Amino acid sequence: MEPQQPWDDSVAFSLVRLGAVAHRRYAELLSDLGLRPRQVGVLEQLRAGPMSQLELATTLGVTPSVVVDMVDELERLEAVRRVRDTVDRRRSNLELTDRGRELGRSTREVAAGLDEELLAGIDPDHARTLRAVLRRMLPPRGLRQEA
Amino acid sequence: MEPQQPWDDSVAFSLVRLGAVAHRRYAELLSDLGLRPRQVGVLEQLRAGPMSQLELATTLGVTPSVVVDMVDELERLEAVRRVRDTVDRRRSNLELTDRGRELGRSTREVAAGLDEELLAGIDPDHARTLRAVLRRMLPPRGLRQEA
DNA sequence: TATTGTTATACTCTATAACTATA
DNA sequence: TATAGTTATAGAGTATAACAATA
To answer: Are the Cβ atoms of B21 and A145 closer than 8 angstroms?
Structure first.
């Protein structure tokens, strides 16, 4: 009959709750830009260069129909262009527009500001450790963790 | 034109993604017990003693109708009992059953196991720092962060 | 036949509003 | 009138399945 830990001692619980807090706050801050959190992933992935919708779906770990919606919205914002592949005309190659790159920069500023909010009152040395450990724990993008 | 950070350098991003990973995995592990992640919060809160549904809603930061659903499910599992308050007959005081306490113990074992999974390959010293920092960053339960 | 993107549909989670029974 | 709990409904977010165009 060992004394049971209080539930905030669990890293898993803390991550779930903090993740939700960060997501909610991030969504709030992004809404000024007309963006949703999930669309930031698209802007980030396209920074390296054009990509088909299916490649994007795999990389982001979402289903293709979700990509359709995300890209529809980003096209409405003129942040992304669908360019029909001339060789394989089934493919849409997604390109970042200048506006898209600008929005991307803004999202990174928003994220940096949110980091400051979240880390206010945290010892800088501990914050550095946190960054490193979190990155270490993150599974590489695109490897869907299926059941 | 400062070099922009890669997006995994953001603590906010990392927390959002890791939170989602932890939530998905936790849900998976809990399904063996017939539980969903959100119900663990109920079991945890009731450990200290009975509570009305409205108090629970405030503490968990969810809307009262959500509590109704959660408690319905937990009652079906015979983990929780609704006991009509004899003084104010509008109130349902929620009590943990023996089965509920047992399920609670199981969820804490599951969480501990998940912690091991998540922290595999992390230096124990860093893991300790992580625990402390995450707890520090967590807003106290029940104080809804409204817009 | 297989693949890319799309549409239609459904399921989960959560919120709001209207309702009931008590106070 | 106000409050505790409930029900009905709606809105995100994501998934699956069927479909059209192209390979």
So the answer is: yes
- Distance separating alpha carbons of residues B94 and B84, to the nearest angstrom: 9
By the 8 A CB rule, do B100 and B80 touch? yes
Nucleotides of D under 7 A from a protein CB: 3-9, 12-17, 21-23
DSSP B38-104: HHHHHHHHHTTS-EEHHHHHHHHT--HHHHHHHHHHHHHTTSEEEEE-SSSTT-EEEEE-HHHHHHH
How far is A19 from B13, CA to CA, in rounded Å? 9
Task: Kindly report the pTM of this predicted structure.
Answer: 0.90
pLDDT in tens, A26-36: 999 999 999 99
Residue A81 near residue A94, CB atoms below 8 Å:
yes
Give strand letter and number of the nucleotide nearest A61 (CA to C1'): D14
By C1' distance from the Cα of B91, the closest nucleotide is D4
pLDDT tens track for A106-139: 999 999 999 999 999 999 999 999 999 999 998 7
**How many beta carbons lie within 10 A of that of residue A89, not counting itself?**
8
